[in-house]
Predict the 3D structure of the following.
Amino acid sequence: QLQASGGGLVQAGGSLRLSCAASGRTFKNYIMGWFRQAPGKERVFVASISREGRNTNYADSMKDRFTVSRDNAKNAAYLQMDSLKPEDTAVYYCAADTRGSVGSKLPNGWNYWGQGTQVTVSS
């Protein structure tokens, strides 16, 4: 089970840190990923991180502003979002899977999903 939290309302240029708490499985065996979905749009890849946290992958448009991390001792993954823009407004989802090294950039490449947390960036 995955539980995403940390979303909220922030002004453009601000920061938020999303958390994804995992339970029920051996967290360190799972690649962790973040996706987002804006109203009326498809769910898109944001970032992912390997099992031990050594390797990360980012969507090109976010790699300079977002940082993905994890703490296997706490069964948690994080997404630090800086310099937020109104176009970052979306529901953000964490995802987990056992396949690959840093996971797929496609939503159908992930087996487990959290419920999502809303991020709203005002201009």
About this structure: The chain has a mean pLDDT of 95. Residues 37 and 43 are 4 Å apart (CA to CA). The first strand starts at residue 2 and ends at 5.
